[in-house]
Amino acid sequence: MDINVRGPSYLELGGIKLSASIVIGWIIIVAAFFFCRWLTKDLKKVPDTKRQAIAEMLVNTMNNMVDENMGTGMRVYAPYMATIFVFALIGALVSLLGIRSMTVDINVTATWAIMSFVLITYNKINANGFKGYLKGLASPAILTPFNILSEIATPVAMALRMFGNMAGGMIITTMLYAALGAASSAIYGLIGFSADTYYFSIFQVGIPAVLSIYFDLFSGVIQSYVFIMLTMAYIKNGREG
Amino acid sequence: MENNMMDQESVLITAKATVLAAQAIGAGLAMIAGIGPGIGEGYAVGKAIETIGRQPEIKGTATSTMFIGCAVAETTGIYGLFVALMLLFANPFLKFLEQ
Fold first, then answer.
1. Sign of torsion, CA A145 A149 A151 A152?
2. Would you say A225 and B74 are in contact if contact means Cβ atoms under 8 Å apart?
3. Using CB atoms, which residue from B68, B82, B89 is nearest to A164?
């Protein structure tokens, strides 16, 4: 069984180890960039191509989501949310292609969580002033340590939530694959084939797909959605309180 | 002299085995944390279904809110899973033996 929480390293360039997540992440970035360039090629005021209609639909969906959850006048955050959502979604769904999912790497999710945390803190300070921010931390003076703790817990929870969901799914799927492989070699051993020369495990066809639907598709989509929804909710709360 | 060396080595191996066994047991115990989120999420989903049954027109809002609530309620369970993963794959206590 090959279970590695930090992710395997793919390339080594000049002494710097590039992890699988970085390589996959950059492939996704380049692919998404060219896809968006293709979608937004020669835009017209009245769309006459399906391409532009799809592009407008995607942008409208994101804008409406931000309007609904953060109130009007916060559309400036729509591109950030869309970026994180698309990146997390594709990064999780590449596991359907047999590649290691990008979000099964605590470095990736921690990076996103820290970025969101910086945004949240900036909004808190921007709305209430630096003094107001400090006062909010020490609002019942006795609870100051707990307030600071819960402030730190925000990004930790965001990072661990995404990572934990995907890592748990990956581990369960890997264990299932190993068990099914062992079961089919045992069957081959009973029939008389040698498992080493005839390497095709019959049980690994189809059965893991049932789990994959939940752990890869459902979990990946829900976790990316929850990540941006929480970021929006925290930013909104920070501006109000 | 040789006997003494052998003794030390076997003591170290026993200590290592003990630490590994304790890590496995600790990982299992850490996953007890899954009980809480399980109960909490079940309660949340039940309430959401109740709401949808009463007001079918807000199905979309109720469902998305339920998913977010479930994801937040899951956090404590994920902490337990993280501790279990650390115990199983990072072996944090073995380094104390090697000193």
1. positive
2. no
3. B82
Q: What is the ipTM of this complex?
A: 0.75
Q: Judge whether B58 is closer than 8 Å to chain A, CB to CB.
A: no
**Is pLDDT at A3 greater than 70 in this prediction?**
no
pLDDT > 70? residue A169: yes
Q: Tell me the shortest Cα–Cα distance from B71 to chain A, in angstroms.
A: 7
pTM surpassing 0.90? no
Q: What is the CATH number of the domain that holds B74?
A: 1.20.20.10
The shortest CB-CB distance from A160 to any of B64, B82, B90 is to B82
pLDDT for res B41 = 93
Which residue's structure tokens are 């279970």? A3
Domain with B45 in it: 2-96
Counting beta carbons within 10 angstroms of the beta carbon of residue A20, is it exposed (0 to 12), middle (13 to 18) or buried (19 or more)?
buried
The stretch B24-34 carries a mean pLDDT of 92
Contact criterion met (CB < 8 Å) for B67 and A165: no
**Residues 6+ away with beta carbon under 8 Å from A89:** A220, A221, A224
Distance of CA A22 to the CA centre of its chain: 14
Task: Average the pLDDT over B8-26 and give the result.
Answer: 87
- Number of CB atoms found within 10 A of residue A92's CB: 26
pLDDT digits (tens, 9 = 90+) for A62-105: 999 899 888 888 888 999 999 999 999 998 888 888 788 888 88
Closest residue on chain A to B87 (Cα): A5
In contact, A91 and A99? CB cutoff 8 Å: no
Strand bridging mode A9-13 / A16-19: antiparallel
Rounded Cα distance between A96 and A215, Å, is 10
Distance from CA of A138 to the nearest CA of B (A): 25
Half-sphere exposure (Cβ direction) of A202: Cα atoms closer than 13 Å: 10
Any bridge partners for residue A16, and if so which?
A: A13
Chain A touched by B82 (CB under 8 Å) = yes
Domain total for chain B?
1
From A4, A161, A171, residue closest to B71, measured CB to CB: A161
